[in-house]
Amino acid sequence: MSTDLMPNRYRPGESDLPKRESELIARREAVLGASYRLQYRRPVHFVRGEGMWLYDPDGRAYLDFYNNVPCLGHCHPEVNAAMAEQAGRISANTRYLEPKLVDYAERLIETFPNELDRVVFTCTGSESNDLALRIARFASGNEGVIVSSYAYHGTSAATAAVSPNLGDAVKLSPSVRMVSLPGPAGVPEAQAADFFEAQIRSAILDLNRRGIGVAALLIDSIFSSDGVWVDPPGLIASGAAAVREAGGLVIADEVQPGFGRTGAHMWGFERHGIVPDLVTLGKPMGNGFPIGAVVGRKAPMEQFGATSRYSNTFAGNTVGIATADAVLTILQRDQIPQKALAISQHLRSGLEKIANQHSGVRATRNAGLFFGVDMGPEGAPAARRRAMALDVVNAMRDDGVLISTTGANEDTLKVRPPLVCQAEHVDLFLASLERALIKVAG
């Protein structure tokens, strides 16, 4: 496992930078907290975005194959217009009657299974997961939370305490149990569900023996931080059932796989044939505007709401709701998920062709337009695989294409372009990846 919390980052002295960027970095370091990082060995400096593209101050265009936040592309004119129109009238909160809030809530709920019929709005995915944990702990009467071994679920105190991805310096809660995934463990797909269920039952047994009990299984159904281990569909179903048998709730973190990212489904959990108790939303919901939500079953929502107040001034504000409503309208009207699925097949085919020609590509996995591409030949040491992945990412950055890495060893390329990606963008990405592989190998 990599001990560097952000290996794909700028380190002073490692790159020669133009005066403009070096002076800006110096100003940042003089005023911003030390927890900030700049991505890539040579930081990128952007002044505007449009669709699939980001532009630096000199007008150079960079193809964005990494940013899932603007799911409809950067600065979508229709989304921006809805945001500006509402901001020009009023930005109010959920304590006042406002029909658009209810209209959007009804539309959003219609995209979920019938059992999930209540929504509470937040500002971010971290807030959504924080609130979902509160609800699960209240409804279950237990404290224990089960997560995957390299999960990331947010930056609040509560969500950082259930996010092993943040590193050893961020201490996990004593009530957290981590479970291994079948893919990284080398378990064949035919045995994946049984392996996952066994991991879950072992965690439940330990939590119960220690008098903690299980409140929730909290999972990102695409396991993005673990290395994008998406298959086989259904692998989590029996483990989720075991959690419910033990009195816990199932929370699906849909911040990354949600809103049509997987193509075949609106929500990532649908690939696994389950209906969670709570679903958390964030980032893509407002195409970059900070809005999130918890969608859930009526019973736990009412249990929590009867005695606990969740009052968040900006959560569900009218500007955010208008923005989110425009995003949902465009996703549905323009059949964005279905088109993304077709484009993902073109991307998959191209990646498989490259893998057949370059030994540096070890494996490719995807669900819709979310890909994990393992770097480094079979049997190569972990450090070599990680170094190769980082070299490829930074070679592509210099070529004008943006991606990053993921996984416990950070040797998996994380490829997740905006859902408006077209065939010509895929071809540009594939050509850049091939150039990077040749450069790194040479």
Automatic annotation (TrEMBL):
InterPro entries: Aminotrans_3, Aminotrans_3_PPA_site, PyrdxlP-dep_Trfase, PyrdxlP-dep_Trfase_major, PyrdxlP-dep_Trfase_small
Lineage top rank: taxon: Bacteria
Gene3D superfamilies named in the record: Aspartate Aminotransferase, domain 1, Type I PLP-dependent aspartate aminotransferase-like (Major domain)
Coiled coil spans: none
PROSITE patterns in the cross-refs: AA_TRANSFER_CLASS_3
Keywords noted in UniProt: Pyridoxal phosphate
Cofactor: pyridoxal 5'-phosphate
PANTHER family: ALANINE--GLYOXYLATE AMINOTRANSFERASE 2-LIKE (PTHR45688:SF13), PTHR45688
Family affiliation: Belongs to the class-III pyridoxal-phosphate-dependent aminotransferase family.
Protein known as: 4-aminobutyrate aminotransferase-like enzyme
